[in-house]
Design a protein that fits this description.
mainly beta; 9-stranded antiparallel sheet; two-stranded antiparallel sheet; about 5% helix; globular
């Protein structure tokens, strides 16, 4: 007896965790971008920088399409014109003492470091100003069992950071809101998935 064909498939469910190689990474514009979920991004000069721990909220994505409904005489809806499209991503970085994290939130040129000496620890200085933050490339990596998930944002900029609480009650974190912008193919990002099921 042949089993019925069904759309129900538990192997198609995922709940990704961060990869050991990094879950949130950024690089300068012009850095070679991966085109699969498994392309190696860990080596080479000018490669992607791992921004370390993120909060357990993970990565939140919001795609917004705004439009206007068009009606004809008599009240029938005949179409919807799309006016705008945008993609926003939100994540919270946890390693507040990491200079790459601070540079992501406050600007690469706004962070400077005086190395540690025999008598003083490493000094990090951050300029707090209204300058635009850096436009860079981004990768968000995750895995679930044998499944790989990767989101690539060729052009993106952190446009807002959330409240930064300095308190003994919780670790100090930085919530980042990232806006994606279209590349030369008019794509705001790319999603790559691999189910890990080989034919061998």
């Amino acid at each position: 007896m042949t089993a019925p064909v069904t759309a129900d498939n538990v192997l198609q469910l995922i709940a990704p965790s961060p990869r050991v190689s990094g879950s949130i990474l950024r690089a300068k514009l012009g850095t070679t971008l991966p085109t699969t979920s498994s392309d190696d991004i860990t080596g080479g000069a000018g490669g992607f920088i791992d921004l370390g721990f993120a909060s357990d909220a993970g990565l939140k994505q919001k795609e917004e399409r705004t439009g206007t409904d068009v009606f004809v005489w008599g009240g029938d809806l005949v179409g919807t014109l799309q006016e705008k499209y945008s993609r926003t991503m939100t994540f919270t970085l946890m390693q507040f003492m990491n200079t790459d994290v601070l540079a992501t939130a406050y600007g690469i040129n706004n962070v400077s470091v005086i190395p540690a000496t025999a008598t003083e620890g490493k000094e990090i200085a951050v300029k707090l100003n209204p300058n635009l933050l850096d436009t860079v490339s981004w990768i968000f990596d995750g895995f679930y069992q044998d499944t790989l998930a990767r989101i690539v944002i060729p052009i993106g900029r952190v446009t807002q950071i959330g409240d930064v609480d300095i308190t003994h009650k919780t670790y100090t974190t930085i919530e980042c809101t990232l806006k994606a912008y279209p590349d030369s193919f008019k794509n705001h990002g790319y999603l790559y998935l691999n189910d890990g099921q080989t034919t061998g």
